[in-house]
Amino acid sequence: MVKRNQEFSKEVVIVNQLGLHARSAAKIAKLAKHAKSTIWVIKDRDKVDASSIIDVLTLACPKGSKIELSADSQVDIDIINDIIALIERGFEE
Known about the structure:
Elements: E1 2-4, E2 7-13, H1 22-32, E3 39-43, E4 46-49, H2 53-57, E5 66-71, H3 77-88
Antiparallel strand pairs: 1-2, 2-5, 3-4, 3-5
């Protein structure tokens, strides 16, 4: 876990054959909406709100893409861990 100015983040690689698509983005958004602060998905220099399916889809993440998940508060580290676990399980597809 990386700590940057009270922001907490972790990296993960997309393992799903189909990459990060609409169904998987919806699963991420559903988890992110339970956060007390904003959960961010970062790819390269793009940073989007994880609770927005459309925003997550704009990152265009095929299989093998490395993304970073971050939260504005340590309170939401469990949400980040849940999203990472979901991604590592291939979005359960």
